Amino acid sequence: MDLTFYKYQGTGNDFVMIDNRTKTFPKENIKIISYLADRHFGVGADGIILIENDNKFDFKMTYFNADGSETFCGNGGRCAVAFAKHLNIIDTETTFIAFDGEHFATIKNSIISLKMINVDEIKVSENSVFAYTGTQHHVELVADLNEYPVFEKGKKIRNSYKDPGSNVNFVQQIDESTFRVRTYEKGVEDETLACGTGVTAVAIAMHITNKTKSNLISLPVEGGILEVSFTVENGIYKNVYLKGPAEFVFKGSITI
Ligand SMILES: N[C@@H](CCC[C@H](N)C(=O)O)C(=O)O
C-alpha cells in the first residue's frame, strides 16, 4: 500500500507522523515500523507516531521507538499536538490520550506546552537518580558534557536496568536553573538530539537533589532549548509542563 506520512521534529528529536484515523496502518507489524524509521533504507526517524480517533479525548497518540517498542515520548507528544492542529482535529488547546495516560497541551505559534503525568516514581541513588516520566529515565551529572562518551556509557547503563531498560541522561549544570543534557535513548539505541521525558526527569532530579531551588528549569539539548516547570506537593511532582518548539519538516509517501 502507499502510505502518506508527515515528518516533524521537536528540538531535533524527529518523527514520522501518520494519520491513522482510518485504521489502515498495520501497526502490529514491527518490521514496517522499523523500516519507516530506518535512516538508510526507509524515511528515517527516532520514532513513529500514529494519530487515531478516541471516544473520550480529542485524539489518541501511539508512539513507537525506531525499533518498534511502544512507550510515551514527550517531544513526540508535542509534535503530535502540532500535527493534530495541522489535521484540524484541534485548535490551540487539547486533551489527548497516550501510552502513559491523559495529556493537556496548548499551542502558541510553534511552541507547544505539554502537561506531563504526575511524577511520583523517583529513586535517588549516590551518583544518579531514576525517574519515571511516562517512560524510564536514569539521570547522572558529569563534569564535561562536550567530551563525555554518551553512546558508550549510555549503552552500558541502559543495559544495567532490567527489561525494558532505561534511557540515560547525562547532565552538566550551567547556572542555578539551567542544565545542559545529552541523552542515550533506548529503542533508538543511540544518542538523540533531544528527549522530552528525559529533560523532564533531569529537571525533577536536579530539584529533588537540591542542585536547584527553581521550579522553572531551562534545558539546552543538542537540538535546541526545552523548558520544564512543576509544583511539588508531598514529594509528588505535579503540574509538570514540557515546553518547546515542534515543527513540520516535509510530507511524503512511501510504499509499504
Ligand atoms: N524522545 C522521547 C522518548 C522516546 C521514548 C524512549 N526512547 C523510550 O523508549 O523510553 C521523548 O522526547 O520523551
TrEMBL record:
Binding site for substrate: N13, N65, G74, N75, N167, G196, T197
SUPFAM superfamilies recorded: Diaminopimelate epimerase-like (SSF54506)
Reactions accelerated catalytically: (2S,6S)-2,6-diaminopimelate = meso-2,6-diaminopimelate
TM regions (residue ranges): none
Pfam family, one: DAP_epimerase
Domain of life from the UniProt record: Bacteria
Pathway in which this enzyme or protein is active: Amino-acid biosynthesis; L-lysine biosynthesis via DAP pathway; DL-2,6-diaminopimelate from LL-2,6-diaminopimelate: step 1/1
Top-level EC class: isomerase
Keywords: Amino-acid biosynthesis, Cytoplasm, Isomerase, Lysine biosynthesis
Signal sequence region: none
InterPro entries from the UniProt entry: DAP_epimerase_DapF
EC number annotated for this UniProt entry: 5.1.1.7
Function: Catalyzes the stereoinversion of LL-2,6-diaminopimelate (L,L-DAP) to meso-diaminopimelate (meso-DAP), a precursor of L-lysine and an essential component of the bacterial peptidoglycan.
Assembly information from the UniProt record: Homodimer.
NCBIfam families, A to Z: DapF
Protein name as it appears in the record: Diaminopimelate epimerase
Gene behind this protein: dapF
